[in-house]
């Protein structure tokens, strides 16, 4: 379905044909996909340079009932930026200014297209940082980070995107400009709309400016690697680490399969009796850091501990992280395809999750490995399979449904930091009860009465195909 | 307007006449007011014991279009729990169970009627605490704390109520039970409704259960008192304190008038050249705390410092806090009435706020003093006057409007931790622009289509009387 000719003329005039308004098929193709490997070519791509342009283009699309899909750099893994119903992709690559860094107020004002990594570099001069550190940080945008509530390893101490935003300026589905929050760390003035917009995946409004909460950069960090005989012992250590006052700045976990892969395939130096691994980091200054590390070493010790290594310097720290870094390439040797989910459970339920996932791997005869952000109970469960083998692919998707069912049974939820997008929308009715889902639809309609903002994402279809029989336990 | 007879019969049968359903005028009077000194007698008081009772009573009130006003212990200062349109006050005093403390997950599940102080006492056995610490903590409820996004001094390090809630179960204005969030510190599964409900003052839903995020209790704390020649020097110290990695666990401020009052009226031991005071606390363990205090002492030093005292033990700490504690009784000697607001500005703008307030005190010929949570830019501006003197009372209210206008001009907002309630609703159009306010009204209608939940609070009247001429600068 091509765009209405009148809309095309209006937006070409507004944004500039061939510069801010792209309709060439080759150019549109570059905005068709994201890191989910899903793909749908938009009817046009808009590259606005100002909030006024964003408002004008959304108003025009609202008048013509044409979909508007906001896009950062397409690093998300859920299909959230794939324009499945066509329409206009709005890429914020030309709205990439750091408007202001205000060290005295511990905040920065940015346009949505700023790269996370570029912001961090600019903040370093002020000895500040913005906590969210997704793996994609070097090439993902602040707008994208906010859209999916991106986290990363540092979230265990410093929170995810939602915890680190003070105010947003955004454009709703009718083209209205709204101002949510203020550049203050406290606020009790009406409804908190800025945290509602974070994680809404472009379905409620397009963020055109964000005031981010910053944190002073600790001058030093130190890593500890703890190996345990089994997952249960490692999980107990996680609980001990999280129950004492020194919160680690990272607390990453690898299950037995991951440890084996990192050793046997990735060549990491790990003893054969290690059945689980924790990478623990602390940050602070020269005076306090040694004491913080001591506290973490004490908490890491206990039943099932096989080895405990404390990196004295940066080189040793890199060495300890080598096992974790060897994992991702090693995973690729197991199978050409993987489903990488980011379920989250209460921390105390990590052992049940890992055990349950291991049982599913047996039941479905597929390798499934778990690693990730243990301090938040946020594990990346990777189901490995060969996409060319239809039976394997089917088993992988059946196993995925069971992973979600298990997570929900354990009091967790579908996603900790990737979001829902296309990939998980049909699982939403398993996670969110009908009255709450109805409220979410109602809120969507308030922000976007014509349903033009990122249609087909986050919220499930109104009459989802019955999936109960496919997903027992859900 | 008495309640419809049918509704009365239904709710008396549901809740128990004279036990869970009170209609005696004397009993109703006890639920008519809050700490704002405003008063309106409800038509009945409901004391439910279960979420099922809350659902049934809201459904019945919805059917009859009768107002429902949730109430903790009425400690709020904004009139938010005063039933100005009559109807049913729902007091949660019989839903006061601590359902579960889960140390391994750093969370507690509670009913809304639990007192903040009782929860803290129960958590102490687990070496945990819930950060919000309003002055009223001993006798205010968790439900009330959540309703107004209560903060307190510790918020500078640990956040306010909204930052410390993981999940909520609530009853909407149609009597639907909704489940928002999960007992996990990360979540990217649909819209974040739990943080939207926090601070909504009972206008969107009635919270019937909360899963609170807990923090390990630091075993020790130490206080530093810093005196400065003037407010600007103190404010620069606040900026320095907040820019280094050791975040104080409290950072309280008193302006020159407060220092003078605490000394001359309260008898506090303060030198005559002190024009501003900071109380700074750090917490931690025996190993790290001395270094943290050193870092704070370093940051507190600088231009304009008059004296710096570091309390070596608990007795000395109490001594240092004495000046702050002498303030409130001393204030009462100045005038019988006060308007105590809790405006919040970006930290770097504290000097402009304090200077501006001092100018307003002169202009309106009334004592106005400022003190409060400097690390959050959240100052309690107290306008002192004699309510029996009509001219003074009028000047006080005119000055108040100008304090709000000044705060907004400085990029701040109306309330940091008290909320809006009745007291500030007509100032909302100055703080929130029309499209954003329209969205807030839309969200209210989604949760509460009949407008029965705490009507007349938080959102301004649809056609507010023009206040522009009264509040120049707004």
UniProtKB/TrEMBL annotation, chains A, B:
Transmembrane segments: none
Keywords of this entry: FAD, Flavoprotein, Oxidoreductase
Short name of one Pfam family: FAD-oxidase_C
Molecular function in Gene Ontology: FAD binding; oxidoreductase activity
Residue ranges of every copy of the FAD-binding PCMH-type domain listed in the record: 38-217
Cofactor(s) the record lists: FAD
Superkingdom per UniProt: Bacteria
Similarity remark: Belongs to the FAD-binding oxidoreductase/transferase type 4 family.
Name this polypeptide is given: FAD-binding protein
């Amino acid at each position: 379905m091509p765009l209405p000719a009148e809309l095309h003329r209006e937006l070409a005039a507004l944004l500039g044909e061939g510069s801010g308004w792209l309709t060439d098929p080759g150019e549109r193709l570059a905005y068709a996909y994201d890191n989910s490997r899903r793909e749908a070519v938009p009817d046009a791509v808009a590259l606005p340079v100002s909030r006024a342009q964003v408002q004008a283009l959304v108003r025009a699309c609202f008048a013509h009932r044409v979909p508007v899909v906001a896009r950062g750099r397409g690093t998300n893994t859920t299909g959230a930026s794939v324009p499945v119903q066509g329409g206009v992709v709005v890429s914020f690559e030309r709205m990439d200014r750091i408007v202001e860094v205000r060290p005295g107020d511990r905040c920065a004002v940015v346009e949505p297209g700023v790269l996370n990594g570029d912001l961090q570099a600019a903040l370093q001069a002020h000895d500040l940082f913005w906590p969210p550190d997704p793996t994609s940080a070097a090439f993902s945008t602040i707008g994208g980070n906010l859209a999916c509530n991106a986290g990363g390893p540092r979230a265990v101490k410093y929170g995810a995107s939602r915890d680190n935003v003070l105010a947003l300026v955004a454009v709703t589905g009718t083209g209205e400009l709204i101002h949510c929050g203020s550049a203050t760390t406290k606020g009790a003035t009406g409804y908190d709309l800025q945290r509602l917009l974070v994680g809404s995946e472009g379905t409620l409004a397009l963020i055109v400016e964000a005031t981010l909460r910053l944190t002073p950069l600790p001058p030093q960090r130190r890593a500890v690697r703890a190996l345990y005989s089994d997952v249960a012992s490692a999980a107990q250590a996680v609980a001990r680490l999280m129950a004492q006052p020194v919160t680690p700045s990272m607390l990453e976990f690898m299950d037995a399969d991951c440890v084996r892969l990192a050793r046997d395939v990735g060549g990491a130096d790990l003893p054969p009796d290690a059945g689980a691994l924790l990478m623990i980091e602390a940050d602070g200054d020269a005076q306090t850091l040694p004491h913080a590390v001591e506290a973490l070493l004490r908490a890491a010790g206990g039943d099932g501990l096989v080895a405990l290594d404390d990196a004295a310097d940066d080189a040793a720290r890199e060495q300890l992280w080598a096992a974790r870094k060897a994992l991702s390439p090693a995973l690729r040797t197991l199978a050409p395809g993987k489903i990488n989910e980011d379920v989250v459970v209460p921390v105390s339920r990590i052992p049940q999750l890992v055990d349950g996932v291991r049982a599913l791997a047996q039941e479905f005869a597929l390798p499934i490995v778990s690693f990730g952000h243990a301090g938040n109970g946020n594990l990346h469960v990777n189901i490995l399979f060969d996409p060319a083998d239809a039976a394997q692919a089917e088993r992988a998707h059946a196993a995925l449904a069971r992973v979600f069912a298990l997570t929900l049974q354990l009091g967790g939820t579908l996603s900790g930091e990737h979001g829902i997008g296309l990939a998980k929308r049909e699982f939403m009715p398993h996670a969110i009860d009908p009255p709450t889902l109805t409220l979410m639809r109602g809120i969507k309609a308030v922000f976007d009465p014509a349903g033009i903002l990122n249609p087909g994402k986050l919220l499930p279809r109104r009459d989802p195909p019955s999936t109960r029989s496919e997903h027992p336990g859900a």
